[in-house]
Structure formats: structure tokens, C-alpha cells
Amino acid sequence: MSTDTSKRKAINWPLVILGLAVMVAGAVVAHFALEPRQSASLPEDLQATYLPQGKPISGLQLQDHNQAPFNESRFKDKWSFLFFGFTNCPDVCPTTMLVMKSVWDKLPEAARQAPAPEMIFVSVDPQRDSLDKLKQYVTYYHPAFLGITGELDQIDTLTRQLGVLYGFEDPNAEGNYTVNHSSQIILVDPQGNMRAVFSAPHVTDEIVKSFIAIRNYYNG
Amino acid sequence: MKLLHRACIVSLFAIFATTVHASESLQVSDAWIPEAPPVASVMAGYLAIHNPGAQDVTISAVRSADFASVEMHETRMQDGMARMVRQDKLVIPAGKTVMFERGGLHLMLMQPQRSFRMGDRIRFELVTSAGAVTFSAVVKAASLDGDKHDHHHHH
Fold first, then answer.
1. CB contact under 8 A, B142 and A181
2. CA-based Rg of chain B, rounded to a whole angstrom?
3. Which of the listed residues A138, B3, B85, B128 has the most CB atoms within 10 Å of its CB?
4. Cα–Cα distance, A35 to A37 (Å, whole number)
């Protein structure tokens, strides 16, 4: 009896391993083959304007808050969220920065896998927003966030390509002025193309959901 | 001297009495200020202003010793841009509540005169057609959740 048992075991082990291997292979195939099929189309209720062709961005000569040059090559190999504003803005800009922070916090681990998306605040008020001030402002909301700005004509090079508007109001008696600006969040794909627009009012959960759908669709 | 003293007290009572009878003071609730980056030279104030009286009340100024100046502003979407529109005067209609909240009316608080911490209470004064109204606003964490308060709205 005992020899029979050991013989049976000797025969069964390779079968068990083969069986497990088939299951693992099946799971791997299912994971890689099925996931892109799930995202073959974008949801019809996508809460974003998606640009099917994408729109290449070029000719940027801006600076980031660490004094490093910022051109379109900085968009490569990661998704970027861009929002335009100025630090002397009490209502819209802090609210949108909180939306960006909340989007970041709510991103599932898979969507945050390296490279993580870049959350960028573009100041359209370089006269008052020095790179240092910009750094302190942006990193207050999240240490990973990036502030960029530059000469007005360089900012225009970016805003014109993205369809973002801004304009300065006349200063008051104390010399204070406000800046009117578009409040949409722009999504740039890892090849540096403008890919989607999230219009205000921003609902954090919708942005997260739309981004994941767009990212899956783009990768698929 | 004693007579003069009494006259003063009487006239003081008269002043108070007139104020109370003229129109009812505005009531401020849920006043709060989102904490801002220390470099921010402007902040926002949000609140609810209720007029319990039978007459409209006009706010002509807002003051606070903790800011160089305070203005009432409204964020408006215009030509695809968010615009800040200053309100030199604001009427709170009789029996109505006007909300100052994100993306709408807000107090624009310019040049903080000191740094604030969460939980700080900041004193304000509304200058209105029904007299001055003082209130304090609490500094809260800069979070979208800060907008949720105990105020009951009709849904």
C-alpha cells in the first residue's frame, strides 16, 4: 500500500504543477488580452472633451519652480494635468488646486504607477508670481505639484495652443489687479499631445473616472 | 455733573432704541476662511448672511483689522473666463439669505496682516444700512470638505 501511495504522488506532482501553470498562464493572458478589449471605446457619458487626434504642443520656453527650463519634452512619458491661474486669486485658483489635490489623492494605485501624472499650475501673472513664490504656493497644496511660468509671450505660446484664455483687469487705486482666466483643466498625453479638457465646475470623482477611461483607451 | 451723566445715559438709550426699531440687523452664520499658502497675499472668506427684517439691508463695506482691505467679489463665468467682479454694495433682501461660497460671492481678503492658523477666529465688521454687524470667521483646513457645514438647504 505504501509503495502505491508514493507512486501515485510521484505521478501526480507534475500534473498539479502543470495545472497551476495553465491557470497562471490563463490569468496572465486574460489580464493582458482582455483589459484593452474592455477599453476599446470611451464611455458615452465621459465628463471630458476628448480630442481623438490629440494636438501636439511645441515651441515652449517656460521655467519650472525649480528654475529649470520647461519645454514640451517635459510632457513625455507621463500624463500631465495643467491648470492656469495666479497666486493672487482668492476663489477659483485655490478651489481648483484643491480639486487637483483631490484627483491626485483619489487616483488608484494603477493610475499612479511610475511615471506618476504631473500636476502643473501655470501662472499667467509672472510679474507678481516669482518662481520662488510659485514654488511655495504650489507645493503647499502637494509637494509633488509643479508650478511653471515665463515671459508673457512664452505663456501665450502655450495658452494659444491649448485654447486657454486670460486677461488682466485694470489696477485699482492701490495698484492691485486681478487676472481673468479660463478655469478648465487640460490633460496632456505621454507623447506631449493635448488630449482632453475638463471644464468647470469640476467634480473630482468625474475627473478621476474620466482620466482612467481615457488612459485605458489610449493604452489599449 | 450728575445731571449731565444721567442725560448721557438717557441719550445712549435713545440711540440704541432707534437702532433696534429702524430695521433688524443682518445675521451672519457659517463664516469661514480656507487656510491659504503662507505666500498668498489674498485669501477668501465664505459665509451666509440672513436678513430677518421686513426691509432690505445694504452692505456698503466690510472691514477687518487683520487685512489691509476687504472687498466683496463675485466670480462670474464670462467669455469662457472666470472673472472677479467687485461688489461695491450688496443688498440683502428682506427675509432672504445670501450665500458667499466657492465659485460665487466671496470676501476677497487682501494682504493678511499676520499669519493664521487653523482654528483662528478673525473679527469682521459689516457696515450696513441697518448699522454695523460684527462677526468672526474661523480659519479651516483648505479642503473641499470645508464647504460642508451644518447649514440646512432645501433640496
1. no
2. 18
3. A138
4. 5
Q: Which residues in chain A come in under a pLDDT of 50?
A: 1-9, 34-38
pLDDT in tens, A120-167: 999 999 999 999 999 999 999 999 999 999 999 999 999 999 999 999
CA atoms within 13 A on the CB side of A195: 20
Indicate which of A87, A89, A91 best probes the interface with B, i.e. most B CBs within 10 Å of its own CB.
A91
pTM: 0.80
Q: Do A176 and B110 touch (CB under 8 A)?
A: yes
Give dist(CA A135, CA A66) in Å, integer.
Answer: 7
Instruction: List residues in chain B touching A: CB distance below 8 A.
Output: 34, 36-44, 69, 73, 75, 77-84, 102-103, 106, 108-110, 142-144
| CA B87/CA A126 separation, integer angstroms | 27
Distances (CA, A) of B143 to A6, A67, A97, A208: 66, 29, 10, 17
B62-106: pLDDT as tens digits: 999 999 999 999 999 888 899 999 999 999 999 999 999 999 999
CB contact under 8 A, B75 and A92: yes
